[in-house]
Amino acid sequence: MTTTVPAGAAAPAPPEPSPPAPPRRRPARGAGNGGLFVLPFLTLFGLFLVWPVVQGLWMSLTDASLTLRETRFVGFANYAEAFGDPDVWSSLGNTFFFTAISSVPLVLIALAMALLVHSGLAGQWVWRLAYFAPYLLPVTVVTLIWTWLYQPDLGFGNQLLGALGMEPVGWLSDESVAMWSVAALTVWWTVGFNFLLYLAALQSLPATYDEAAALDGAGAWRRLWSVTLPQLRRTTALVAMLQVLASLKVFDQIYILTKGGPNGSTRPILEYVYDVGFTGYRLGYASAVSYVFFAIVIVVSVAQLRLFRQED
Amino acid sequence: MSATATAVRPRRRPRHREAGSPLLLGHGRLPRLLTGTALTVLAALWLLPFLWAVLTSLQSEQDVSSSGLSPVKGALTFAAYRQILERGNVPAWAFNSLLVAGLVTLITVAVSTLAAYGFSRGTFRGRRALLAVTVAAIMVPPQLLVVPLFDQMLMFGMVDTYAAIILPQVVAPMMVFILKRFFDGIPRELEDAARIDGASETRVFLSVVLPLSRPIVSAVAIFVFIGAWNNFLWPFVVTNDPGLMTLPVGLATVKDAYGIQYAQSMASALLAALPLIVVFLVFQRRIVASVATTGLGGS
């Protein structure tokens, strides 16, 4: 549960190479052939990951509630209800809309930032700090700052519009604007991680191709388009994939910023799960909705894997 | 224009050119000016919200609530910071965050390095199957676990305890995977030498493998710490007692209470952000490098 963004990175990871040939001499038998080393992790893993995953699946088939300890097996009733629940569909729609409008700038701006920083102008650490620093902030801090910027009367956004002689905008109160405001906050907050991924990739590219192209008379733009960007294709696939998965899982900033409002226009699917489970006390139904969502995440991951593999 | 300028590699290597990095727009004066301008404009955009928060936190509440585009409307004062530190739970929350993030990091790193070593060098039965399950678990979105985990904590009677906040966070299959890949790359000859000298597996791990893995272990520690410090949903769900809350959770619960007191909420936001900014400034190079070494970057 610690890092949210890198989760799911195993998907694009290459398959494990077959283990090297066994050593001629069997290693000493200390620590039970390694089994004891793995034991503490496996205990915690079983208790706090495998158990809840299985338990959640079981709960989704019951009418488990936060208030009653007795539960009844209800089969797929929760799932049937979820498919007919307009709130599930609308919060899924919000989730996909957010994913669409946040992922594209989060990939493109990160790429632009990395290319600019990699251009080698002085002051590297200043740029790195400026672009990455927001990623270090706890979600509450980010939303506190942006609640203030989006404040209707005194906030920077509307003060600026006022100074330019324009009408104030209901950043968080206008149904058609609120999700865009959330996306802007998210881009500012998290672009730094993608920026670092791109920067690390750029720094590990061999300079030889670029230099060869330069010797052949290719201009800077031409080298960018024909040499650098194609070499970044796999990184872009990885960044886009991680980003889509991260965006689909949006919850924290929206919950604190708008509580899903105005009028449910920013409520993502995970907030619906939270509302149903912890405000409505229906743990069974909440579990069913989260497993529907998990299934969608898996489908999206597989689809992305296919897509990028074809491009290769 | 820049094409001809860059086609011929400059004889005099410009100072700004770092280790083999190709200049995006070429080496001429105009391209450098454009690159510099773009970098500065983006950096300004990204720093502006910080600047606004800092300036807001340094004013009195009355000055903050008077209108005007200028961020500074009256004399600068540390009153908001004093108020936060004197009353309210912010110091207690900061302590909780430090304790939770520190312990999560310590336990995660200890448990994950051990497991990664066991998976990398172990010969026990079921090793490959267990490793496969661990890797598959990386796909599970943590949010999926919140409802059943909470149910589990109710059953254990652990709601509103440090253990409940910490324990579920120490399971990090991703970190085990990253560490295992690193250990796989360490040549075994070094360990075999120690084994021939009669060192136990534990000794080999502690005195040969761990010292060789310092960069990756510290990278993992930094990412786990940032993640734990910033984690919101789980601590939010499992704590009701304000005395147990971490900073992100505590600040979220009082956001509405602070309501109109923007100077104070900005001051508390910045206090909560400070430790991580310091961590980043100290470990900057290592963080950037670690993205590459963890295999997340690169191809």
Molecular structure report:
- The complex is a heterodimer of chains A (312) and B (299).
- The two termini of chain A are 32 Å apart.
- Chain A is mainly α and 312 residues long.
- In chain A, 65% of the residues lie in helices and 0% in strands.
- Chain A has helices spanning 35-59, 77-83, 86-118, 124-132, 139-149, 156-163, 178-204, 208-215, 220-231, 233-248, 252-257, 269-279, 283-311.
- Chain A has 13 helices and no strands.
- Chain A has a domain at 107-269: MetI-like fold.
- In chain A, helix 1 (35-59) crosses helix 13 (283-311), helix 7 packs antiparallel against helix 10 and helix 12 (269-279) packs antiparallel against helix 13 (283-311).
- Chain B is globular.
- Chain B has helices at 2-7, 29-57, 61-64, 79-86, 90-121, 127-137, 142-156, 162-166, 173-184, 188-196, 201-212, 214-230, 233-238, 247-258, 262-293.
- In chain B, helix 4 packs across helix 15, helix 5 runs antiparallel to helix 12 and helix 10 (188-196) runs antiparallel to helix 11 (201-212).
- The chains are: A mainly alpha (312), B mainly alpha (299).
- Chains A and B meet through helix 1, helix 3, helix 4, helix 5 and helix 6 of A and helix 1, helix 2, helix 5, helix 6 and helix 7 of B.
- Chain B: The chain crosses the membrane at residues 33-55, 93-117, 129-150, 162-183, 204-229, 262-283.
- Chain B: Pfam families: BPD_transp_1.
- Chain B: Keywords: Cell membrane, Membrane, Transmembrane, Transmembrane helix, Transport.
- Chain B: InterPro entries: MetI-like, MetI-like_sf.
